[in-house]
Design brief:
By secondary structure, the chain is an alpha/beta fold. The protein has 22 helices and 27 strands. The strands form 7 sheets. A 5-stranded parallel β-sheet has the order 4-3-5-6-7, sandwiched between helices. A 5-stranded mixed β-sheet has the order 12-13-14-15-16, with helices on both faces. Strands 17, 18, 20, 21 and 22 form a 5-stranded antiparallel β-sheet that branches. Helix 4 (about 95-105) packs across helix 5, helix 8 (about 190-200) crosses helix 9 (about 225-235) and helix 12 (about 280-295) packs across helix 15. The radius of gyration is 25 Å and the shape is globular.
Length: about 600
């Protein structure tokens, strides 16, 4: 029988009786977790939650990095009909307090003593009654989660199973707070039916089976990562948990995954590292030759066909295999989601033999709306809509969707819920189009579209993606709304820029001095000038603001999923931006 709830999916995972449902690192070893062990751990935690008086509809928060205990807490809560409230571990105490208070969570499960201290510092602002600690540390302020897990039954718990089977598709499964690129985050209510319908349809066309391995490193507090993990587990894929992004390169080498699911920022970093490592005339010559060979074979790569020419095999051996080796050397399926990948970046990967299956969705859509698959793939699009999702393009080109995976309401925000729909269609806030083959393209966020004072509309993301293909650019933010012309804020890739500066005998004692140096300014004017050649006249970037800062989630300029917070960035540099536009507007980047 087809699963109707996330609990049905959990039981299917358990009843598959795999020896390696998950992999967890213990010291230097990766230890497997079997189906039986996973059930024991989940049941042990669910029993404790039940004994504490938690009932269907109560909210329970998870404040943790990716790890086995995250999944255990999630499924233990879902079996009881609790609504899980994920919280990014990088949020500040006050941001954490807002989510706990707004959701009305009475229990919070935290990963470390550091996260425990954060919660204790704001606990009196919330309705939290109990705190559970995942790490094995003794403290009077929290319950030891490891003990709860180990108290699980040796076999099945009929009472728990019956309670879990009583949960219906209409029951609330989670309240996920949006990352807030344009304002205060909102709690998105997703039911068991919403999430399950998406899990069952999002990976149609992918050949997944037990034996496949994927590394779970994107934050599970985000709907994309949580959905991907549940969907992969549903197909029998083994998950290996990586708690911190800086550990990912080593984890990939140790685990050697066969599936790689990432956001564009990760793919950009890999590209940048490759470009940075190609030094010296001989290496550059071989690299450029290999890319030219790869570009000639792109149609085959995008069709899922391995090229057979001798030139391709040599290019793969000398260059392309080295990139794959950095990801463990065994990846067969590459997926990107969470933000636009950019056609140029996708083309670079295709030229080295990697076909990235880009998808698209939002928290409110559980999340996947469309995805490229091995059977239906068109680069530059986000694929065809899922079988159970309808897509319509409005008169103003906004993407509208409806289907069983669309959320039911924002938590405590009835007015904003009403505003999110038109005639039963959810307004995504994205601009896009459907082509004659049914593939969906996403141009930009509706709220991010810039309208110059001359009335021209500029979609900033494609321009920013083109700029970020240069390894010397860390982050680019296009400006120009209600201005006479477009400009750009650039945060350089400082390690590479500093190396370039030393090679060019540029003296500097700070990043402020570095970005203000005439040679550095000329370097970036040249980079922007190259991109300008491919832009329409009204899109041309006429001014550059080089800043000495790196944008991060911790300083509020990026969301926890590494998307730009444009308003925050523009507010930070408001004085410099105004000064930029006050200068002579006749200066044009050559």
């Amino acid at each position: 029988m087809k699963p109707q709830t996330l609990n049905d999916i959990f039981f299917a995972i358990v009843e598959r009786r795999q020896d390696r449902v998950m992999l967890v690192r213990e010291g230097s070893e990766w230890v497997p977790v079997s189906s039986q062990e996973f059930y024991r751990d989940v049941a042990g935690v669910a029993r404790a939650f039940s004994q504490w008086g938690l009932v269907k509809g109560d909210r329970l928060a998870i404040l943790s990095e990716n790890r086995l205990e995250w999944a255990v807490t999630d499924f233990a809560s879902l079996l009881l009909g609790l609504a899980v409230v994920p919280i990014y571990s990088t949020l500040t105490p006050q941001q954490t307090a807002y989510i706990l208070r707004d959701s009305g969570a009475s229990v919070v499960v935290v990963s470390t003593e550091k996260q425990l201290e954060k919660v204790l510092s704001i606990k009196d602002q919330t309705a939290i009654e109990k705190i559970v600690l995942m790490d094995p540390a003794e403290t009077p302020d929290a319950v030891h989660m490891q003990r709860l897990m180990h108290k699980g039954p040796a076999g099945r718990d009929p009472e728990l199973d019956a309670r879990a089977h009583a949960i219906t598709p209409d029951d609330l499964a989670s309240i996920i707070y949006t990352s807030g690129t344009t304002g205060t985050s909102k709690g998105v209510q997703l039911t068991h039916g919403n999430l399950t319908s998406n899990v069952l349809n999002s990976l149609h066309g992918f050949e997944l089976h037990p034996g496949h391995v994927s590394v779970s490193f994107l934050p599970l507090s985000h709907v994309t990562a949580r959905h991907a993990d549940i969907a992969l587990l549903h197909h029998g894929v083994t998950l290996a948990y990586c708690s911190f992004l800086e550990e990912l390169p080593q984890v990939l080498l140790e685990v050697r995954p066969t599936i790689f699911v990432a956001v564009p920022r990760v793919y950009e970093k890999i590209y940048g590292q490759v470009e940075q490592k190609v030094k010296g005339l001989a290496k550059k010559t071989i690299y450029r030759w290999a890319l030219s060979v790869g570009r000639a074979h792109c149609p085959k790569i995008l069709a899922g066909v391995e090229p057979a020419s001798l030139a391709w095999k040599l290019a793969h051996k000398l260059v392309f295999s080295q990139v794959r080796a950095r990801m463990g050397g065994r990846v067969e399926i590459f997926v990107s989601g969470g933000a636009p990948l950019g056609k140029e970046l996708a083309a670079w990967y295709a030229s080295i033999g990697i076909r990235i299956h880009e998808g698209y969705g939002l928290t409110e859509t559980s999340p996947v709306i469309a995805i490229n698959t091995p059977r239906a793939h068109k680069m530059g699009t986000v694929g065809r809509p899922l079988p159970n999702v309808e897509v319509q393009i409005a008169h103003d080109l906004e993407i509208l969707v409806r289907g069983p995976s669309i959320f039911r309401a924002y938590w405590n925000r009835p007015e904003e819920t009403r505003d999110a729909f038109v005639d039963g269609w959810f307004k995504t806030g994205d601009i896009g189009n459907l082509d004659e083959d049914g593939f969906l393209s996403v141009t930009d966020r509706k709220k991010d579209m810039l309208k110059t004072s001359g009335g021209k509309f500029i979609a900033p993301q494609p321009v920013e993606n083109s700029l970020k293909l240069n390894a010397l650019i860390g982050t680019a933010v296009v400006l120009g709304d209600r201005r006479k012309f477009a400009s750009v804020i650039i945060s350089p890739a400082f390690p590479l820029l500093e190396e370039w500066a030393r090679a060019n005998h540029i003296l500097f004692s700070s990043r402020e001095e570095l970005v203000d140096h005439p040679k550095v300014k000329a370097l970036y004017q040249g980079i922007v000038g190259e991109v300008n050649r491919g832009l329409a006249r009204y899109e041309t970037l006429k001014k550059i603001l080089l800043v000495p800062d790196e944008f991060t989630a911790s300083d509020g300029t990026l969301t926890p999923t590494l998307k730009l917070r444009r308003r925050a960035i523009e507010a930070r540099y408001r004085k410099q931006i105004d000064e930029l536009y006050r200068e002579a507007e006749t200066s044009v980047v050559a």
